[in-house]
Amino acid sequence: MNFYVYLVIALCCFVGELFTMEFSLTCVGIGLLGAALASWLGTSIWVQVAVFSAVAVISWLGVRPFALKYLYGKTKEVKTPAEDVLGKQAMVEVDIDPVKDTGRVSVNGESWKATAAQALAKGTPCVVEKLNGVTLFVKEIKK
């Protein structure tokens, strides 16, 4: 196969990696660069496949762990906005009635559907105990 084909596919892998950032496509792209070199040297297709496979596996085992460790190793666990509200103080915006399954609370300026063990009136301060789907389970803060 013409080595330009390998180079174009490798370039597509490197561009695709910009969207995934998991370094899998980078390893495939590096393998394709090895296959392009083998093709440029005039080897058979089977040698090119072997070079691609060997280089891709070696980069998967060598480059990917290094990249993940040093580029992502220092980041803290990322929380979704839903997970971030757990344990936060909230204010009841709309009366919470667990029987009718109605009620809303405000947490960090955002309005959330909420429920509680007992009915809570508007303006009652509470704390978010758990999350069930998009519904917060809150508990009144006793004064």
Describe the structure.
The chain is an alpha+beta fold. 47% of the residues lie in helices and 25% in strands. It is built from 4 helices and 5 strands. It has a 5-stranded mixed beta barrel. Helix 1 runs antiparallel to helix 2 and helix 2 packs antiparallel against helix 3 (45-72).
Order of helices and strands: HHHHEEEEE
**How large a portion of the residues is in β-strands, by DSSP E?**
25-35%
Strand order of the largest sheet: 1-2-3-5-4
Unreliable stretches (pLDDT < 50, length at least 5) are none
Strand count, sense and barrel status of the largest sheet are: 5 strands, mixed, barrel
Would you count the extended β strands for me?
A: 5
Helix content: 40-55%
| Average pLDDT rating | 87
Oligomeric state: single chain
Overall geometry? rod-shaped
Q: Gap between N and C termini, in Å? A: 76 Å
Radius of gyration: 27 Å
SS class = alpha+beta
- Number of distinct helices: 4
Comma- or semicolon-separated keywords:
rod-shaped, alpha+beta, five-stranded mixed barrel, single chain, 143 residues
